[in-house]
Amino acid sequence: MKLIHNFKSPNFNKRKHNKIELIIVHYTALENINESLRYLCDIKNKVSCHYLISQKGQIYNLVSEKNRAWHAGISYWNLENDINSNSIGIELDYSPNYQNNIFSKKLVSSLIALLKNLKKKYNISNYNILAHSDVSPYRKIDPGSKFPWNTLYKYDLAFSPEKVSKNKIKSIRNWFKKRDISSKKNITLFMLAYIGYDTSLSNQKNFYYNCLLKNYQNHYLQNLKNSKNLHKTYDLIEKHFCILVLTNLKK
């Protein structure tokens, strides 16, 4: 895997945590790779990433992994709100609004190679390879509904909720019932919070609740034909929650 070191961003500082636990995947939303390099390396913009991958598959190392790149912004995952300190940020040269509006084969191939390297190097679980929209669900939508999570899953580089027995699902439902938690929304938010999501704003307004569900769908239910039909979404969140409760995956 060849890295390009010709461009360096000044936008970083020291990590507050020594352990790197997460990989966050973004898209630039800019017109092309040159514009992305300029923007991410401009001190005035106060934003950066560790790696930037072009449509042609070139991998630019803009910030050393030992440093805290400024890629996640206001974010949260699994009780941690300084995501920049415990993560590696990867930006992809992609925008839904310009000609770089596909995840090219060369880009995805380079991303796979980079993820394999980082996953092995830092012993990162598939559960912790995340979208920017996972850690900032009320602000961000990247890398979006067209990002090839299924391809990453085939290479053992992404988490996908598996099948769970009906008996285990029943036991989870009984647990909520015994605690007199019956509202579908309250149960869903409880499960999403356990999975790792920030549910704080979703408790306040349905607009934010819908943002959270939509970003969950963009990651785990990309083939959903009608995003407003929430039965399949609730079903998968329940399986997702059940897997985490019944395993040591989060430890």
SSE layout:
Elements: E1 3-4, E2 12-14, E3 22-27, H1 33-40, E4 51-53, E5 59-61, E6 67-69, E7 87-92, H2 105-122, E8 129-131, H3 132-135, H4 149-154, H5 166-178, H6 184-195, H7 206-220, H8 231-246
Parallel strand pairs: 1-5, 3-7, 3-8, 4-7
Antiparallel strand pairs: 2-6, 4-5
How would you characterize the overall build of this protein?
By secondary structure, the protein is α/β, with parallel strands linked by helices. It folds into two domains: 3-154, Lysozyme-like (3-Layer(aba) Sandwich); 166-246, no CATH class. Helices cover 37% and strands 12% of the residues. The strands form two sheets. It has a six-stranded mixed beta sheet with strand order 1-5-4-7-3-8, sandwiched between helices. Strands 2-6 form a two-stranded antiparallel ribbon. β4 and β5 (59-61) form a beta hairpin. It is globular and about 60 Å long. The chain starts with a strand and ends in a 5-residue tail after the last helix.
CATH class of the largest domain: Alpha Beta
Low-confidence stretches: none
Oligomeric assembly: single chain
What percent of residues are in strands? 5-15%
* Main beta-sheet strand count, sense and barrel state: 6 strands, mixed
CATH topology of the largest domain: Lysozyme-like
For the record, what is the CATH homologous superfamily label of the largest domain? Peptidoglycan recognition protein-like
Structural class label: alpha/beta
Order of helices and strands: EEEHEEEEHEHHHHHH
